[in-house]
Amino acid sequence: MTDSHDGKFGRYGGQYVPEALMPAIEELREAYERYVLDGADDFPTELRDRLADFGGRPTPLQYAEALSDRYDTNVYLKREDLLHGGAHKLNNALGQVLLAKYMGKDRIIAETGAGQHGTATAMAAAHLGMPCEVYMGETDMERQRPNVQRMRLNGATVTPVTTGRGTLKEAISETMRDWASNVEDTHYVIGSIVGPDPFPEMVRDFQSIIGEEAREQIREKTGGLPDSVVACAGGGSNTMGAFHEFRDDCAEPRSADDSSGQRPRDHVDLIAVEAGGSSLEVDEERGVAPNSATLSTGDEGVLHGARTKLLQDADGQILESHSVSAGLDYSGVGPELAHLVDTGRVQAANVDDDDALEAFHRVSRLEGIIPALETAHAFAYLEAHPDALGETTIVNVSGRGDKDLETVIEQTRDRDLDAAAALDDPTEGAEGER
Amino acid sequence: MSLDGVFDEPAFVPYLVAGDPDRESSKAYVEALAEGGADVIELGLPFSEPIAEGPTIQSAIVRALQAGMTPDRYFTFVEELDIDVPVVCMTYYNLLYQYGDSDGPRSFVERAAEAGIAGFVVPDLPAEEAGPLREACDEFGLDLIFIVAPTTTDDRLATMREVTSGYVYVQARLGVTGARDDVSDQTGATLARVADWPVPKAVGFGIKTREHARDIVAGGADGIIVGSALVDIVARGASEDRSIDTVAQEVREKAAALKAGAIDGGRDRVDSTTD
């Protein structure tokens, strides 16, 4: 483990929670150290076996021919969309629900934004026979209906959260309240590398199997390491999952004035792509950031149990964030990712809603893969910065886009994007002309 | 104004959110608390993500934020109150942390001291992370009150004892804030664990009636903290569009009943010890 022995990542992290929760997170840290880090009772073996047999790991690292041609580089896709449930979220959900079982807890709660984490937690809870309640903002329930149904089919109770704008930020606050009331028998499965210690470190560990496999797979396929790894970042769990195993591959960032054009040997650029939303400007009057670009534009503060970068106004009130992708729509970000950006190991970038939507269509058409809208942000980065990728790049396909179809079709038409033409049945137009 | 001597008799410590539902009404309601017998007023400075609060106080916070409450307006609000009762600021750490320049919570504490605030309760700041705030409170002579929960471990109790001043807030039950119909039996056990602390013990979470107040004080508390039961009155006033005077009168009566309950409890305790 690096940087995180005391629950801190540089100046970020910590445990800023109500007193009633302190014993629960202390108990969790002990259990995490005992079962996950020290491997007591063969926990890691059971988790690996379940991830393989129930989850479908390892996921492939696929060479993307069309994208490679388009960007004149070698693009490889880490196919977390092929994991059971259709997103990387299962790695963490299964890990935490199994850990809760080892700890003797008998109830699981979770919050969800896009619904992918809620779905993964509901699946893991059903798989391991634990009752599960998932809090979800009303707005998100509306825009992610298929996932709400999936959670219910797996036996979870989905509880709408009506406060604020009804998105992930409010759902997290509500789940923390439930946890504070039922802390003795309940485990809160946090869905990203956010929250109080040990969550950021533990969730990263559960997700780092993505990078672990990708590193081995790219070596097998190319004989070396990639020049860059690109992942989308909301809270940052797929991001850190993809990056963690590459963290020591040239820990020093390339110097900005390096004019030789030569990449240092074994240097892997780690690029976190955030949601630029409709604008990076903040409307302080309305308390709204029309983006979720926390790493690019946020300021240090304390939210949901950790010190990290946040979208906030001058007084410290948390701003409502925005992204066309519900899964990236969060006003905070994982403390470790904030630290790695501050120290130059990870580059933060952002793309706007329109570019992400165009990328969603482009990748679907070119590669036959319908990516999650979250992942589409990472693909939009390739289009905008093909020169930054090096000779070999890995894109973490964090999840599949079935859940986003309704949003994408509606938004593509509303925004009158180029891709809108492709949504219309060409034969209809042809008929009309005859 | 300091907290010295406040707990000489069983104390009534009410809580309202500053600016709920608007500045003018809120001022009248806080003053009504003082007229009703408040010994210390915990005055909430609203934060957008109040993770320790139940639905009643959360809604009050939303109303106050929508009405435009900010940290600077909060300090002016406190300065303009016509009361002779110490005010403790209850809020979340991000607001203290962000105030002024990037010198941590010091600017906030300095401004609070200037406004006459006696101390702070910060529910999401654990004792382990409290160093900079404790230091600033010491510099400006303010108290820093910590919350002890039924689940607090012995190790953490020892840490909290070191940094708590003014009084200790004993959380009567697990969970978030909110009025309940019964008094938890967790209270007595938690009170016993802090019995030898050199600060008064005030019990909060779920206290609603005069009888609850009496029972809690008779059970050994030096004071009672009541939030949601009072915020409920303000909320009803806001939703039913009743006059400020009517709502203030109800707040005053409720405060008087709770204070009387605390005094009753003190008497019961004295009686039982002299039997």
Automatic annotation (TrEMBL), chain A:
GO terms for molecular function: tryptophan synthase activity. It is an enzyme of class 4 (lyase). Transmembrane segments: none annotated. The keyword Hydrolase does not apply. Its EC number is 4.2.1.20. Residues 425-434 have a biased composition (Acidic residues). PROSITE patterns: TRP_SYNTHASE_BETA. The modification N6-(pyridoxal phosphate)lysine is found at residue 89. Its cofactor is pyridoxal 5'-phosphate. Pathway: Amino-acid biosynthesis; L-tryptophan biosynthesis; L-tryptophan from chorismate: step 5/5. Residues 55-395 form the Tryptophan synthase beta chain-like PALP domain. The beta subunit is responsible for the synthesis of L-tryptophan from indole and L-serine. Belongs to the TrpB family. PANTHER family: TRYPTOPHAN SYNTHASE, TRYPTOPHAN SYNTHASE-RELATED. This is Tryptophan synthase beta chain. The lineage of its organism: Archaea, Methanobacteriati, Methanobacteriota, Stenosarchaea group, Halobacteria.
UniProtKB/TrEMBL annotation, chain B:
The active site is at residues 42, 53. Pfam families: Trp_syntA. PROSITE patterns: TRP_SYNTHASE_ALPHA. Pathway: Amino-acid biosynthesis; L-tryptophan biosynthesis; L-tryptophan from chorismate: step 5/5. The keyword Signal does not apply. The keyword Lyase applies. GO terms for cellular component: cytosol. It is an enzyme of class 4 (lyase). Keywords: Amino-acid biosynthesis, Aromatic amino acid biosynthesis, Lyase, Tryptophan biosynthesis. Its EC number is 4.2.1.20. One of its GO terms (molecular function) is tryptophan synthase activity. It catalyses: (1S,2R)-1-C-(indol-3-yl)glycerol 3-phosphate + L-serine = D-glyceraldehyde 3-phosphate + L-tryptophan + H2O. Tetramer of two alpha and two beta chains. HAMAP family: Trp_synth_alpha (MF_00131). Belongs to the TrpA family. The alpha subunit is responsible for the aldol cleavage of indoleglycerol phosphate to indole and glyceraldehyde 3-phosphate. This is Tryptophan synthase alpha chain. It comes from Halococcoides cellulosivorans.
